[in-house]
Amino acid sequence: MTPSPAAEQHEAELRQAAATLDRDVIAVANAGTGKTYLLVEHYFALLAAGYEAGEIVAFTFTEKAASELKSRILQRFETHPEFSGLDAEQCRAWKNKILSASIGTIHEFCLRVAEAARSAAEPVEALEQAWQERLLKRHLRSRLEASDPDVLRLLEAYDIRELSRILTSYLASSRDSETFSGSWPAAEAEEAAEVAGGRDAVGGAGEAEEAALLQAVSRLGDPLVSAIQAEKQARGWISFADMESRALALLGDPNPTLRPWLGRIAHVLVDEFQDTSPIQ
């Protein structure tokens, strides 16, 4: 079927917008017209231009949309012509970079801004650590009782104590200002055996199995990060509005701790936000 002239023009405009890297681009359109497609193509245009995945922040509004966005970026990597000639080792390295990139919700980004502004010397409260450990154990227990396939797959590689250590490392990475990522950083993924106590399950796996293990950690860890954030909100520790206000104030007047973190961000891609919120 031959595309209509209007459809061809629409595709040409999308390609032009995706390839525009020297200025801001705003796409306002109805649902289903290709806005997320445009963001994904723009993401890869930045990678092709030499930017690192760690220099690009991409966020949307809901957890579901954020999960879909990350999934679509990973899927596009498999078919993008810029990466078609990579060998297996290079593909694995790029996938690890994308998995560890800052792709999530706007509130996750706000929290990362706040965490990055906190002094590295500031200790994590012992009470919060103990509370987080209880949530982690509860999360693992509930996923085991539900025969979650990600838990079962990971337990073929690690015992329950090692898996708990890996998830603890994952949680630490989600608030570490040096990684500015809600996903398991590639470097930590490669050193999973050390985190878990010496077993080389990830490093010794084939490429497909290694990718499956890394994604299983992310799928298991992401809901845990969200649960911790929701519990904090329920306890009144910080609300979504507080996150937004705090991030806005910090971005307007970044402190010395925050400035180096912000300096590593070259591009911010926004898929969706709540336009009824003046702060957003």
In brief, what are we looking at here?
It contains 13 helices and three strands; from the N terminus they run ααβααβαααααααααβ. The protein is mainly alpha-helical and 280 residues long. It is globular, with a radius of gyration of 20 Å.
Explain what the structure shows.
The chain contains 13 helices and 3 strands. By secondary structure, it is mostly helical. The longest helix is centred in the C-terminal third of the chain and has 28 residues. The chain is globular and about 60 Å long.
Q: What's the tally of helices? A: 13
Largest sheet: 3 strands, parallel
Walk across the major sheet and give the strand order.
2-1-3
Could you estimate the helical fraction of the residues in percent? 55-70%
> What portion of the residues fall into strands of 2 or more residues?
under 5%
Structural class: mainly alpha
**Global morphology:** globular
Task: List low-pLDDT spans.
Answer: 176-185, 192-201
* Secondary-structure element pattern, one letter each: HHEHHEHHHHHHHHHE
| Rg result | 20 Å
